[in-house]
Amino acid sequence: MLSGRRLDLLDPSPLDVEIEDIAHGLARVARWNGQTTGEHAFSVAQHCVAVEQLTTRLSRTIDRKGRLAALLHDAPEYVIGDLISPFKAAVGLDYKALERRLLSAIHVRFGLPPLLSAELTALIKRADTLCAYYEATQLAGFGTAEAKRFFGTPPQHLKSLRLRTLPAAQAQAEFLDRFRQLSA
To answer: What is the DSSP secondary structure assignment for residue 155, as one 8-state letter?
Structure first.
């Protein structure tokens, strides 16, 4: 990693996880394999910030640690990239196990439980899917009907999230700012 840490992907240690490495990597990993409109790719860092915002909108009672977990939900992608769900399934359980071990190490590093509650996991997944709907319709060329088939219908009480693509350095800074607010 740029921090000088050496991360063992097969047995990741929380001691080798640095938020600056995560932010740097996520800001340079493109969602939708870069197949989005705009001058820049829509990064996983931007996606994570949006998912944290949506999680908060879906649950007014979520605490700071739950919001931090939402922000970090795709953090393993800073080293393993963003693979689409069908490809993850095709790769098999070994990939998912690797991803889970890395996420657990990240959670422990930042004071979260290695495994989240089923309730919090479901809430974050709902926000993640909702974010994918907005990304699909605003950035990836999906029509509303097509996006609803893949991602469901957004709740009526939520105003549409307005997404924009950012240069990597700006996406990195926004992710780090949000992390620092939630972990203060």
So the answer is: P
CB 124, CB 54: distance < 8 Å: no
Residue 86 scores a pLDDT above 80 = no
Angle, helices 118-138/144-151, rounded to nearest 10 degrees:
160
- Alpha-carbon gap, residue 96 to 110, rounded angstroms: 21
Report DSSP letters for 31-87, one per residue: GGGG--SSSS--BHHHHHHHHHHHHHHH-TT--HHHHHHHHTTTTTHHHH----HHH
Give the global pTM: 0.93
Query: CA–CA distance from 52 to each of 8, 64, 70, 122 (Å)?
Result: 27, 10, 5, 13
Measured from the Cβ of residue 43, the count of other Cβ atoms closer than 10 Å reads: 29
